[in-house]
Write a structure and sequence with these properties.
Layout lengths: L8 H15 L8 H9 L4 E4 L6 H11 L3 E5 L3 H13 L4 E4 L5 H12 L5 E4 L1 H4 L2 H10 L1 E6 L22 H4 L4 E6 L4 H10 L6 E4 L7 E7 L4 H10 L5 E5 L3 H13 L4 E4 L5 H12 L5 E4 L12 E6 L6 H8 L9 E7 L1 H18 L3 H19 L4 H8 L19 E3 L3 H14 L6 H8 L5 H5 L16 H14 L3 E6 L5 E6 L2 H7 L8 E3 L23 E2 H18 L3 H4 L2 H10 L4 H5 L6 H17 L6 E2 L1
Parallel strand pairs: 1-6, 1-7, 2-4, 2-5, 3-4, 5-6, 8-13, 9-11, 9-12, 10-11, 12-13
Antiparallel strand pairs: 14-17, 15-16, 18-19
Helix pairs in contact: 1-3, 2-3, 14-15, 18-20, 22-24, 22-26
Bound molecules: adenosine-5'-diphosphate (ADP).
The site of adenosine-5'-diphosphate has 17 residues, from helix 3.
Length: 632
């Protein structure tokens, strides 16, 4: 690792040593080097890196090389606990002080602190501001303060926490300590807010690349048989960890029930469940005794499981910020992971209705509603877009995407195709809307276009109009999806009308653009997923970018090592990833180290882990027979 130029040689050698000894890390990731250098130089900093980018190391490694304590402010007890457990298993003396500790644990932390043995102290913002605590820190000498999830300080962030506002006073309370803020939230406004709120002095501002190349993004039109679409995704991730997000609590309960019936062990999580039920689900997921969680967005922060191999959205989130945040929980270990979004234009109207209702109830300014609807529109445009998903996301967050092709999204993998004769199809759909004078919803229009002989159509004489049965050779879901695409392109409008029940009913209407389509003066591209060949593998199964990280790995051995890791984790009462990450286990199953020295060379194996777990893994590897089933 070459750190010359950023650090004095002595410090640079010590850093290399510390990284290897505690984390088994031999190379730094993007921006970790300047971020670490800033802490060591005691210069304030703001570091923006995507989830999984390795922000923690930026303050943890320098803490070991500095005198005094580094305080880490974190918003959730579960996050603090995970970090402290992880650090202690890597041989770092870290403690936390929060309301969940027993008296003995608190006394232990206090003793360790006063004896000057602690390098990293994790606290909640409320705790840090208490006067007795401040005095203690002033006594023992504070080196730096790291503020994790720093966007919580900003009202413009997606996770504002009022208690973070008190951190404004840190500068005055600890004038000798440097302040370092870390977040994955990329918007300019939030960044500016963090700098101002914390009063950072001449800060080093480091903003990373927001692309997550190890994630494969797919957007698939949601069909009526949604459960089959979900099972299809799950079939690609047998015994792997994943999160399924639903828009409503009801959807969560229904889907979790359906999955369990189908033999998939899935647990539910949403704000309507009791605290006990929620923590049961969360613990089971972290301990890997349950691999699939079906949840609302309430399930998120504090989920530090690094080997989440898929995130599936059964409905469209309300903004790309939310989407980025939720999909960001996949593949934190840097290995391949899949993010599938089942989208339907219906979601757009569900969200729109909810946003308008919330605005009416809170009587908030109309600009707030406009901004929410703007975010919603951006999200929907993303779903309907034929541009590379990585490019769209990176551009949305204000960065340039420099690759020509990502090889990790439905478009670049050739899983979506242009609908042939899209012009003619569009004209047929728009004509049908014109014939029924814009008074009906999508479902009914699809039935007319498919020529369905149902009572309502006959009663209204719509079986006699010229557009009846014009698209009868097509699947209802395809027509529905094309109609949503045309609405998305602005070639049709969907509006809500009042019915005798007083409820808003969405109907499809013509607009100015529709006339242009009817006259054949403008054409739109319509997309559809590549259909699987009869009897063949699905289009998706043919291209799995996430196979990449498996090259040369003996999968049977990997599974055996995973199960050994689970046994050890249960014995010591920690989540499995605290023992070793998946990437380390895969490397064991690839290179089959035959001695502790060889094992020590594997990334992720530091001295403490080698001492505590190395022999058990080595013994297993040496007795397991080589399987021919390696994946290349
Ligand atoms: P973030 O806080 O940015 O979401 P983390 O700090 O949790 O990310 O790091 C994500 C994962 O990457 C962790 O498993 C961590 O051990 C690993 N990691 C961090 N830096 C490196 C590195 N330089 N080399 C290898 N693994 C790393």
């Amino acid at each position: 690792m070459d750190l010359a130029g950023t650090l004095p040689p002595q410090l640079s050698a010590e850093l290399v040593d510390v990284l290897e000894k505690h984390w088994g890390i031999r190379s730094l990731r993007q921006l970790q080097q300047p971020a670490i250098a800033a802490v060591l130089a005691r210069r304030d900093s703001l570091v923006v890196l995507p989830t999984g980018g390795g922000k923690s190391l930026c303050y943890q490694a320098p803490a070991l090389l500095s005198r005094g304590v580094t305080v880490v402010v974190s918003p959730l007890i579960s996050l603090m606990k995970d970090q402290v457990d992880g650090l202690r298993s890597s041989g770092v003396n870290a403690v936390r002080l929060d309301s969940s500790l027993s008296l003995e644990e608190r006394q232990f932390a206090d003793r360790e602190l006063r004896a000057g043995r602690v390098k990293l102290l994790f606290v909640s913002p409320e705790r840090l501001m208490q006067s007795d605590f401040t005095m203690l820190l002033q006594d023992i000498g504070l080196n730096a303060i790291a503020i994790d999830e720093a966007h919580c300080i900003s009202q413009w962030g997606h996770d504002f926490r009022p208690e973070y506002r008190q951190l404004k006073r840190l500068r005055d309370m600890f004038p000798g300590a440097s302040l370092h803020a870390y977040t994955a939230t990329a918007t300019e406004r939030v960044r500016k807010d963090i700098l101002e709120q914390l009063d950072l002095i001449n800060p080093e501002v480091l903003i990373g690349n927001f692309d997550r190349p190890n994630l494969t993004y797919r957007v698939v039109p949601r069909r009526g048989d949604q459960i089959n679409q979900v099972l299809d995704v799950l079939s690609r991730h047998k015994s792997e960890g994943g999160i399924i997000y639903c828009i409503s609590r009801n959807d969560v309960n229904t889907l979790a029930g359906q999955l369990n019936k189908a033999g998939v062990k899935a647990m539910a999580y949403h704000a309507g469940l009791s605290a006990i039920e929620r923590s049961k689900t969360q613990d089971a997921f972290l301990e890997e005794s349950c691999d699939v969680v079906v949840a609302t967005v309430a399930f998120g922060m504090g989920i530090d499981r690094s080997n989440v191999r898929f995130v599936l959205h059964t409905g469209m989130p309300k903004s790309l910020e939310h989407y980025q945040q939720e999909t960001g929980r996949a593949g934190r270990d840097g290995l391949g992971a899949e993010c599938v979004l089942l989208s339907s234009g219906q979601d757009f109207f569900t969200w729109k209705g909810l946003m308008e209702k919330a605005a009416r109830e809170s009587q908030s300014e109309s600009s707030h509603l406009d901004s929410s609807l703007g975010h919603l529109n951006d999200m929907w445009r993303y779903c309907r877009s034929s541009v590379c998903r990585h490019r769209s996301l990176v551009n949305y967050f204000g960065q340039e995407y420099l690759e020509e092709k990502c090889d990790a999204c439905d478009h670049c993998l050739g899983e979506t195709v242009m609908v042939p004769d899209a012009d003619v199809i569009a004209q047929k759909i728009v004509s049908c809307v014109a014939r029924v004078r814009g008074s009906y919803g999508i479902g009914y229009l699809v039935s007319i276009l498919r020529g369905e002989k149902i009572a309502k159509i006959k009663e209204r004489g719509h079986d006699q109009i010229s557009t009846f049965g014009l698209l009868k050779q097509h699947d209802a879901f395809d027509i529905r999806d094309w109609m949503y695409q045309l609405i998305g392109h602005g070639a049709l409008s969907q509006i809500e009308i009042e019915t005798s029940f007083g409820k808003g009913m969405p109907v499809v209407r013509l607009n100015k653009e529709s006339m242009v389509v009817l006259r054949g003066e403008k054409s739109y591209r319509l997309l559809q997923p590549l259909k699987a060949k009869k009897g063949g593998k699905g289009a998706v199964a043919a291209h799995r970018k996430d196979e990449d990280g498996w090259e040369g790995v003996d999968r049977d051995l990997f599974e055996e090592l995973r199960s050994l890791r689970k046994t050890i984790a249960d014995e010591i009462g920690m989540p499995p990833y605290i023992v070793f990450h998946d990437a380390t286990l895969r490397e064991f199953a690839r290179s089959r180290p035959s001695s502790l020295e060889a094992m020590r060379q594997v990334p992720g194996v530091g001295d403490a882990k080698l001492r505590n777990f190395g022999a058990k893994f080595l013994a297993h590897i040496s007795t397991s027979t080589k399987s021919g089933a390696t994946v290349s």
